Structures are given as structure tokens and as C-alpha cells.
Amino acid sequence: MDTLLQQLINGITLGAVYALVALGYTMVYGIIGLINFAHGEVVMIGTMVAFTVIVSLAGSGMPLLIVLGIGLVVSVIVCMVLGWALERVAYRPLRHAPRLTPLITAIGMSIVLQNVAMIIWGRNYITFPPMIEKIIYDIGGASFTNVQVAIVSLAAVMMVGLIYLVHRTKIGMAMRATAQNPHVASLMGVDINRVIAMAFVIGSALGAVAGCMVGSYYEIAHYQMGFMLGLKAFTAAVLGGIGNLAGAMAGGILLGVIEALGAGYIGDLTGDFLGSHYQDIFAFIVLIVVLMFRPSGLFGERTGDRA
Amino acid sequence: MSEKPILLAACEVAKHFGGVKALHDVSLTIRRGEIYGLIGPNGAGKTTFFNCLTGLYKNEGGYFVFDGNRLAADAPHKAAAVGIARTFQNIRLFGNMTAIENVMVGRHLRTNANVFGAIFRNPATRAEEVAIVRRAEELLHYVGIHERAHDYAKHLSYGDQRRLEIARALATEPKLLALDEPAAGMNGTETEALRLLVEGICRDGVTVLLIEHDVKLVMGLCTRVAVLDYGEKICEDVPAAVQKDPRVIEAYLGGSVA
Lengths: 307, 258
Hints:
The complex is a heterodimer of chains A (307) and B (258). In chain A, the strands form 2 sheets. Chain A has a two-stranded antiparallel ribbon. Chain A has a two-stranded antiparallel sheet with strand order 2-3. Chain A has 307 residues and is mostly helical. Helices cover 72% and strands 4% of the residues of chain A. Chain A has helices at 3-32, 39-58, 64-91, 100-121, 146-168, 170-180, 182-187, 192-218, 225-240, 245-269, 280-293; strands at 126-127, 136-139, 142-145, 220-221. Chain A contains 11 helices and 4 strands, in the order H-H-H-H-E-E-E-H-H-H-H-E-H-H-H. In chain A, helix 2 crosses helix 9 (225-240) and helix 6 crosses helix 8 (192-218). Chain B has 258 residues and is α/β, with parallel strands linked by helices. Chain B folds into 2 domains: 1-83 and 174-258, Rossmann fold, CATH 3.40.50.300; 91-173, P-loop containing nucleotide triphosphate hydrolases (Rossmann fold, 3-Layer(aba) Sandwich), CATH 3.40.50. Chain B has helices at 46-53, 76-82, 99-107, 115-120, 123-143, 158-170, 188-203, 215-221, 239-244, 246-253, and strands spanning 6-17, 20-31, 35-39, 61-66, 69-70, 84-86, 176-180, 207-211, 224-229, 232-237. In chain B, the strands form 2 sheets. A 6-stranded mixed beta sheet of chain B has the order 6-7-8-3-9-10, sandwiched between helices. Chain B has a 4-stranded antiparallel beta sheet with strand order 2-1-4-5, covered by helices on one side.
């Protein structure tokens, strides 16, 4: 098997998921300068909800695609409401507080959501029933599945849609204006509170889709899965230049590829001293290197001009 | 003049910053169709008055009545919604957006499309988006910078940026346009062009509230002028009378003349 090609394919799949989650971080950061550390948990809730819906509908005799579709839609709606509620309850009252306060609150919300999920779905790993029949395609010594194809193409559609929304529609224009100068935007009649809520809602919807992808890719879920996923997506956002949408997309894909290549070659590089389960270290090596040498990220300029 | 209806009445508006009385019970009335000047030495409270009016600051005392209704401007977008638009002393455009996009943001308020329309692209939304672009083009034409429509706002010349700010403010369809030192840093020719633009705006039915340091511009343009000094209104009259008022001369020249 061709390791390089195989790991590239895996990396792009993983990266597509990171990119979608990273967009949630970067949209919120671009507009209010807050790193919403609870975003990873929103993704986790998205996975869990999709899991519950799909499992409970599995015996209903509905066609598989419909069941999966309903699971995805319900998960997206739940996460949108959750994202909206987070902003409304936890962050809006702290809008004018010192920057550290909402950050700590975000970490607090992350812990709250983890524990709520633990109460609802338990502490054990949840395995997805193998419902989707995997079709494996071969290409030049490497292989990929229909699930991977679905993940990458759905992610691509979502990203194109988001770019269109932000650059071609009224609400997107209001978002960009708010990111650049909230006071002036509001003087032009833009309701800042709605725009900020919208950033959370859209980010959470993307997160829910990413959560469903993770669930269907790894076929496993856990109430703490959002932590590491969130941290890596945050790294992807920083890598691309936090606040920058294109940056989050590129950063996500890049991070996924780096991680997959790292996992594929770490055994060879260290003489089998470290195995592929050390793949997580690559994300954080990347984070440290970026923060040291290019703290504004690959795409340098931010959409907003906040520090 | 006096038979025209009142558009804006400020009633004993007060604003403090700690112990500093930035505005001390300022009352004034602006009538429809006026070009009303607000002048005063630096730090007199002119911009603070604007900020209270547009909801950027919350005034501690007094209130505004705008177009017959008490103004509950606890958020700037509400002031914009009732028909108050402004520009800034230090230009505040959305620098990383094009000129036409800046104006399109101003149309936000007067259009209905929501996020569902944006996603599902129904015909009403698309028609509205076309209308937004067309209106934005008209406004750029109106202020005379339509050739720069697709340049980034930050790349426009200083005078064009000032014009773009005015176009953006007009896009909200204001009843009252508040201009904060629009002629600051302009040369004679640019100031003259600005004077013509403001006169045109007024003729087209928008009442103008003008903060300005250029006394010649204010005196030539305004129908009435109020003078602020240390947060208090010391005079309100037609320009010719204001120029002769001893309190105004004292405020500007430091008392030796009186």
C-alpha cells in the first residue's frame, strides 16, 4: 500500500472535518474577538444527537438515506439552538467585560456541556451501528471509502455555501461590517446582537455537520470527544489566521494532512519508538511553531482588525 | 422658518465622564429642512452630543424627541431605524470592503431579506439584492465617486472617503443626517464641493446637523447655529447674529474682547 497517498487521502478527510469546526471558532473570533472554547462541545453534542436520532429511527423501516438525513438535520437544528443559547446566556451579558472573563466563561460552558452530555449519554464509548454499507475504492495502491467521499464533498459544499453567504448576501455583508467596526455597523442600522447570534448559529450548524461526519467516520462517540477535536480545530484556525474564513478552511485541511502524514511516518522516523497513536502531538507542534514564527497565521491579515 | 415642523428636540441632555460635565443640560430644536450648525471650541461637547443622539453613549439626563416620538436610543441601530444617520470626525469606513459594499451595508436597514431568503434564494430576495446594488450605485453617483465603486474603501483618497461616508449614511434613508466635521482636512476646492453636496442633500429633503470647525463654511451653509462651550449651549441663532454674540467671541478668543 502506498503510505503517502493513503495518508493524504485520510488527511484530507480529517482536514475537512477540522476545517468545518475551525470555521465556527474563526467566525465568532472575527466578530467579537472571543475564542469560544465550548465550540468543541457543541460539535460533540451534534454527534450525540445524530447518534440518538439515527439509532432510534433505525428500526422504523425508513430508507437508510432518509434516516441519516433526519439525523443530520435534527443534529444541525439542536446545535443551532445550542449555539444561540450559549451566546445569549453565557456571552452576551459579558460583552463589555474584560476579555479574560468571557474566555473563562467559555471554558466553564465547555465543562458544563461535557457533563450534561455525560448525564444524558453516559460515560462509555458509544459505538455507531454499522449502518452504512462501506464501498471501498482503490486508487494507485491506496483506498478510500464512500463515507470519505461523502465527508469531503459535503464539507466542500458547506464551505462554498458559507463563502457565498458571507460575500454575497445581506447578512454576510452585515457580518463583515460588524467584524470591522461594530459601532459603525450598528449606526448603519445593523443589529449587532443579531449578527453575533447569527455567527454562533451558523458556526454551530457547521459544527453539527462536522460532528455527524466524525461519528460516521470513526463510528464511535464519547462525551469528551469534543475537547481534543475542538483544540485541534482551534489550532487549524490559528494556523490559517484566526478570524479569516479562507484561513480556517486551508488551516483545517493542512492540519489534517500534517497529522495524517505524521501518523503514517512517525514509526519510520523514530525507529518504531513512537507509534501512530502519537499523532496528536503533530497538531500541537504545529500550533507552537505557528505561534512562534507567524502568530497571525498563514493568511496574515485578519478580517477584523482586532488583536 | 419657524412654521416648519420640529424634527429633533434635545431636552436638557446631560452626559458626564466621571467628574467632567461633557454636556450640561443642552437643549436645542432642529426643524425640518434646516441645515443646523453645531460649533464650539475643541472639547466643547459637540461629538459627545452626536454620540448621545445616535445611541453610542447613554445620556444621564434629558432626552431627545425625534419626529414626534421620544427617542429610546439604547442601541445605535435603533437610532438608525428611526432615521438618524451620521458620519465621523475621524473617518470610519469598512476599509476592507469596497466602496459599493460600504454603501450596501447602509441599505441593510431598509431591506427585508433574512437569512432564509439568503440561503434559499427566493425571487423576492434576489430582486431585493439587485435593488440594493442599484441604489448603492445611485448613491455613489450622487456623491460623485461612482468611478471608485469597486475599489477598497481604504484605497480611496481622503476626500473620496469623506464622500463615501456620506453616501453610506444616506443609504439608511435618514431624515436627519449628522455630519461630524466633514470638511476637516479638506482644501478650499474640496470644501466648496462639499458645500454644494450638503446643500443638495438638504434640497432633496434631508435635514442636516453639521458639526464644523470651518466657520466660513458654517456661516455660509447653515440656517441656524448653536454654540457649545464646556458642555453648555451658550448661543443659538442665525449665523450673522451668532458671529456678533459676545459670549461666542469670548469662548473662541478667550475673553479679552468682551
